Each structure stands twice: as C-alpha cells, then as structure tokens.
Amino acid sequence: MTHDMEKTKCLIIGSGPAGYTAAIYASRANLAPILYEGLTPGGQLTTTTDIENFPGYPDGISGSEMMEDLRKQAARFGADIRTGEILSVDTDARPMVAKTDDGTDIAADTIIIATGASAKYLGLADETKYAGMGVSACATCDGFFYRKKVVAVVGGGDTACEEAVYLSHLAQKVYMLVRKDYLRASNIMKERVMSSPNITVLFETQAEGLYGENGVEGVHLVKKRGTQQEEHYDLPIDGFFLAIGHKPNTDFLGGKVELDEQGYIKTAPYTSETNLPGVFAAGDVADPRYRQAITAAASGCRAAIDAERYLLSKA
Ligand code: NDP
Q1: Which of 4, 166, 231, 241 registers the highest number of CB atoms within 10 A of its CB?
Q2: Which CATH superfamily is domain 121-242 in?
Q3: What band does 3 get if pLDDT is binned at 50, 70 and 90?
Q4: Across residues 77-105, what is the average pLDDT?
C-alpha cells in the first residue's frame, strides 16, 4: 500500500484537556498543528459527570461540553483536528514519521503525546464475555442502568470509593470487592463509603469470574485466597464495575519513549521533555500524581511552549 505523506511542525496525539490545550497554544504560535483525536474524542472527561473543580465554572460544566469548547477554541486558531488514530511513530527518523489509521503518513518536526490513560481490567475472560452486558469501567457512564439493582465495584482506591458512593445513590445495594484488608483511599473517601448505609465492603475478596444467562447475574468470589481460611462463594449482582486504576496509553510508541516503573512517560523535571528530542508529553500519560483536568490542560500548554522553543532552537 502506498502512503500519502503530509508534513507538520507539530503533531499532537490525543484529545483530552492536554491535547486540546496544546493545540490552542501551538496554533497561536503559528505551528499549524495537526491533532489526532484517537478513539475517544474528548478523552476520559467525556465519560464523567459534571466537572466542578475546574476554575472559571462556578456552576460546574459537563465533561463533554468542556471538551467541545476546548476543541472549538483550538479549531478557531487553525488547529487541524482529525478523527482517527496514530498507530505507530518512527522517532528515529528526522522529521519523525507517524502512521495513521487512514493510511496517511505524517512527517512531524515535533510530537506532543497526550494520549491519556485507559481503565484497567482484571483480565478475566468473563469481563470480555459480558462487556456491555453488566461489566463497566465507568460508573458515571453506566450507573443509570442499575437503578434499584445490586452492583459490585472492584478496587479500594479513591476511584473505587468515588464510584461506589456515586452508585449508592442509584442502586439498591453496592458491594466493594477489596483484595486487601483495608481501603487505600483517602480518609474523606473512606468515610463517605463507611457512612453510606447501602455500601458493604468485602475485604480480602477477589472476583474469579462472572455468571448469568443473558448478562451478569452474579460473581464468583474467593475470600482470603491462598490462606487456610480460603473460601469460595457466589454473590448475586446485576452490574460489575472495575475501578482498579488506569494504564497510560503508550503502546503505539514501540518502547522508544522512556517510561517509569508504572508505565507513565518520564519527563525532565519542570518540563514536558521526554528522553527523545522533539517529543513532548502532556496530561495523564505522563502524570502518575495529579491526573486532574486542570493539571492536564496546564501541561498541554507547557508542551506546546516546549515544542515551539525546541523548533526555534533548531531554526
Ligand atoms: P489506585 O491505584 O489508587 O487504586 C487502585 C485500587 O485497585 C487499589 O485498591 C488496588 O488494590 C486495587 N487493585 C488493583 N489491581 C487489582 C486487581 N488486579 N485486583 C483487585 N484489586 C486491584 O487507583 P485509583 O484509580 O483509585 O486512583 C488513582 C489516583 O487518582 C490516586 O492517586 C487517587 O488518589 C486519585 N484520585 C483521587 C480522587 C479524589 O480525590 N476524589 C478520585 C479518583 C482518583 P491494592 O490496594 O491492594 O493495591
């Protein structure tokens, strides 16, 4: 197959607050950026409810609305925003070359990686079998379907607690499946869970599989796995929610960009610079620590400024 080749000073990969903000800044710096939105235009925030902690929105704003506004703002300054995915990047070539899913190759002087992170799954075959039939990794997206029903949330961190509390307002009963004998979440989230009358935390408990005829009807559990008291039992549920953390989306980089031990892109202190010249990272893909909309937007700004300065230094 022959590939068309396009050229840009700045290729931005990803379309959450980091990618769009990078596009706003890069456009205004006359870099004429091309932005590939990926499979979830707008990113993770399009699957949340209202964003209440982004400065400037005293009444909150929906994630989708904010992303649409950021997108429009980037487009107004000339960013070339495209629906589609970058499949791989050759960072050894100069200019670098990105392969897109529509068969176009893009030669880029700089690349800003803002591909975010995706929800992790346990890896059970039943998670795939019941996908969209009772298994979800987003309570705020799918919680509505479980009104007055019984659900389980897997995980013991802040996300799991947040999702369990959210679901407790809709569902009749929420079980949290926590593999350790404590919740690792912050105190305020733990307190919210513990004071919710319809949440029950099952400690030292893991899911082994799901069952049901036309959707999830229950979960096979093991308690105290690997001990003398190991116990297997089934718990009837209608919905199974994963909240066990996120994995940064870096597979398409082919191992060239340096990652930390958790899989996040490493950046030089106070910058968005990766180990590769001309490659910058912004947002959740490079942020094991804050992972907020506002910090992602800020890091997108930094990445665009870093890309601009890099280009000036090469001119
Ligand atoms: P965390 O990594 O903090 O927690 C993941 C949870 O999932 C842990 O309880 C972990 O168990 C459990 N887990 C992981 N893998 C498995 C598995 N295979 N089987 C069973 N359980 C598993 O992720 P979060 O998404 O909760 O949070 C990420 C970051 O975002 C944190 O820094 C958090 O504080 C922050 N955050 C803050 C919020 C807020 O302040 N409102 C809201 C949401 C997130 P174990 O403890 O045994 O490792």
Answers
A1: 241
A2: FAD/NAD(P)-binding domain (3.50.50.60)
A3: low
A4: 96
Structure tokens at 141: 């997206």
pTM of the entire predicted model: 0.81
Which atom of ligand 1 is closest in space to residue 291's alpha carbon? 30
* CB contact set of 278 (below 8 Å; sequence gap of 6+): 96, 109, 110, 111, 307, 310
How do beta strands 86-90 and 50-51 pair? unpaired
- Cα 21 to ligand 1 centre (Å): 27
Q: Which residue has its alpha carbon closest to ligand 1 atom 40?
A: 158
CATH 3.50.50.60 region(s) of the chain? Answer: 4-118+247-314, 121-242
pLDDT at 280: 98
Find the catalytic residue in 80, 138, 158, 301.
Answer: 138
Is 51's pLDDT higher than 90?
Answer: no
Under 8 Å between Cβ of 140 and 50: no
Say how far residue 273 (Cα) sits from the centre of its chain: 21
Tell which atom from ligand 1 comes closest to the C-alpha of 161: 26
Q: Identify the helix (H) or strand (E) that includes residue 305.
A: helix 293-314
The pLDDT value given to residue 53: 84
Residue 131 CA, ligand 1 centroid: distance in Å = 21
Pocket of ligand 1 (CB under 6 A): 122, 154-160, 162, 179-180, 184, 186, 206, 244-245, 291
Q: Among this protein's residues, is 306 annotated catalytic?
A: no
111: nearest Cα among 257, 239, 214, 241: 257
**10 carries an active-site annotation:** no
Q: How far apart are CA 247 and CA 28, in angstroms?
A: 32
pLDDT at position 57 is 94
* Bridging pattern class, strands 231-236 and 218-223: antiparallel
Residue 301 annotated to the active site: no
pLDDT at res. 296: 97
